[in-house]
Design goal:
This protein has 587 residues and is of the alpha/beta class. The strands form six sheets. An eight-stranded mixed β-sheet has the order 7-6-5-3-2-1-21-22. It has a seven-stranded mixed β-sheet with strand order 8-9-10-11-12-19-20. The two termini are 35 Å apart. Bound molecules: zinc ion (2 copies).
Length: 587
């Protein structure tokens, strides 16, 4: 991401909040008369786990329920979801969950939220199709709660009327929400960019945004992810030129790693594969699954005879194959990192092959990605990243697109959402600049997770703090890659935690001394625990000596290996599933 334009936010956050929130906005009534209460529960002040609660009297609707992926140093944590205390406390009032689109940071926590209330989950068909397998994994039967909606359709929930507005993004079937409330209309953009040549011909509904703006919008909540970027983001089809070059120049296999939800990217690559006579294999569980769902629902078109299974890749000459793989972030369990150390069941890479990272590096993943690239280089293959060729385009609108939406909607109140605090603050500055001099002065409310924003029709204010924060989720992997069963935090609390401190010699890659195991809340019989921990020490030693030198040198891969090994052992011997946290030290 180009972050050179990020201004230095040197003023303290509070001062900035005062500066941006006060003065322009009269203080709302505090006489107990009803107000519209909007509480962001995630995504304001961080990247990911987007969620918001909108309440009037006895009715609460939830917008999105996303996850955030942990930093690699948060060992043993697979997913982070918003603290749901606020939702639990209002479970009788929560009447619906409304989804903007199918990215994990918007739907990943749906299985954790659905059991907390009765009532429908609204989303477009593709969004709901991506939710369904998650519910299955959690053994949740949605009955008729998943309600498909179409753009421009309206649904009524208590005092709210929700209209869905088509927006463009990096995946199909994304919507913004225009919610009519007793005190005015609020628009929530979801994630968007303004792609004027969408691959599926489904255009951003600029017309409806403008109409609503003309009729008067009380509050706009808008995506801030790319506020730091100048200009316009660019359409999805922009990557075609660079890929055409790569299809022409690659003599061996072409392996492209991208997000498994990037259906447009898949379509571009499938079309090029057909044009350049390469078979296409979808590799990695979520890639296979999403490609299947998208084809079934008509969002991805693959000419018949083009697709092959990953197990058939070796039956074709390298120059006749395109693999679309997971693992663009260097995640140890995903396809590309496994392929890069010859640890994948079906796909190998070698000289003449080209690996393309068609995704941005999510901050925090740079080291894991760099290690994967080194493994690939050792096998003689070439890696192409978005820094070298234009093989990735963001799904989020840049500054000019965000300004355009602001000037179309012309809200009375503006609340930047989806971003770290610096991005929200920058979006707030931009909004004031866009609206200054216009007949309608915009009041910016710079809120963070847990802030209760009150709208009473005359004014708005940020009031009391609601409980908000992060809940760390550990995922059990039952052997198979990505064969995941989510467990809830009560389970973790019940089964405790085991930390394994393992020292490895940096030169030889061998174990130094005995591994040290520390347990908290993980209880087995007294004599058993000694023998179990001895056994665990032996398992660690075996795991290290069985690993290749290359694996041993890769901390990410090694700790994942140890974690899986120890979890399996504890499960087998004690029937319990403690949170296992390997700490690898190179000495
Ligand atoms: Zn998104
Ligand atoms: Zn998002």
């Amino acid at each position: 991401m180009n972050q050179s334009a990020v201004p230095d936010v040197s003023a303290s956050a509070d001062a900035l909040r005062r500066d941006l929130s006060e003065g322009s906005s009269p203080v709302a009534r505090e006489d107990g008369s009803p107000t519209l209460e909007v509480v962001p529960l995630g995504g304001l002040g961080e990247f990911g786990m987007n969620m918001m609660a909108v309440s009037w009297g006895d009715t609460t609707i939830l917008i999105d329920a996303g996850v955030m992926f942990p930093d690699p140093d948060q060992l043993g944590v697979d997913l982070i979801i918003p603290d749901l205390t606020y939702v639990e406390a209002r479970r009788d009032k929560v009447k619906a969950l409304v989804l903007t689109h199918g990215h994990e940071d918007h739907i990943g926590a749906v299985p954790h939220v659905m059991p907390l209330f009765d009532g429908p989950v609204y989303g477009t068909p593709f969004t709901l199709a991506l939710v369904e397998p998650k519910l299955q994994e959690h053994g949740i039967d949605p009955g008729n709660r998943l309600q498909a909606v179409a753009p421009r359709q309206r649904v009524t929930v208590g005092p709210f009327t929700i209209e869905f507005l088509r927006v463009t993004h990096s995946m199909p079937d994304c919507v913004a929400l225009a919610i009519t409330t007793p005190v005015g209309v609020m628009i929530h953009t979801g994630d968007f960019k303004i792609d004027q040549t969408p691959l599926d011909g489904q255009h951003f509904d600029l017309q409806r945004f403008a109409e609503l703006g003309g009729q008067g919008v009380m509050a706009l909540f808008a995506d801030s992810t790319n506020i730091d970027r100048r200009g316009f983001t660019g359409p999805e089809i922009e990557v075609i030129d660079a890929f055409e070059e790569l299809f022409t120049s690659t003599e061996g296999k072409l392996v492209v790693a991208t997000f498994s939800s990037s259906i447009y990217r898949m379509q571009v690559l499938v079309d090029l594969a057909a044009q350049f006579d390469r078979k296409v294999a979808f590799v990695g569980r979520s890639m296979e699954r999403n490609a299947e769902i998208a084809q079934r629902l008509g969002y991805l078109r693959v000419p018949s005879g083009l697709q092959i299974r990953d197990s058939d890749v070796h039956n074709y000459a390298a120059q006749d194959v395109l693999c679309l793989v997971t693992g663009s972030q260097g995640e140890p369990q995903a396809a590309l990192p496994r392929i890069s150390i010859d640890d994948h069941r079906h796909v190998r890479i070698g000289p003449d092959d080209t690996v393309v990272l068609s995704a941005r590096a999510i901050p925090g993943n740079e080291k894991a990605i760099a290690r994967t690239m080194s493994h690939i280089a050792r096998r003689g293959a070439e890696t192409v990243t978005s820094d070298m060729k234009h093989v990735h385009v963001s799904g989020h609108g840049s500054a000019e697109e965000l300004k355009l939406v602001l000037s179309l909607v012309r809200p009375r109140y503006f609340v930047p959402i989806h971003g770290e605090y610096r991005q929200l603050a920058q979006h707030a500055r931009v909004a004031r600049r866009v609206m200054s001099g216009s007949d309608r002065n915009v009041h910016v409310l710079l809120a963070q997770d847990g802030d209760t924003i009150h709208f009473d029709g005359q004014s708005a204010r940020i009031g009391e703090k609601a409980p908000a924060g992060r809940v760390l989720i550990d995922v059990t992997r039952a052997g198979e890659v990505g064969d995941e069963v989510l467990r809830d935090r009560r389970h973790i609390a019940a089964d405790g935690i085991v930390v394994a401190v393992v020292a490895i010699n940096r030169q030889t890659g061998t174990l130094v001394g005995e591994p040290e195991l520390v347990a908290r809340g993980f209880v087995v019989g007294e004599n058993e625990s000694t023998s179990l921990f001895d056994e665990a020490g032996e398992a660690i030693a075996r795991c290290v000596s069985d690993a290749s030198l290359e694996e041993r040198a890769d901390q990410g891969l090694m700790s994942e290996k140890l974690r899986i090994e120890l979890r399996r052992l504890f499960k087998r011997r004690s029937g319990r599933r403690p949170l296992v946290v390997p700490v690898l030290m190179e000495i």
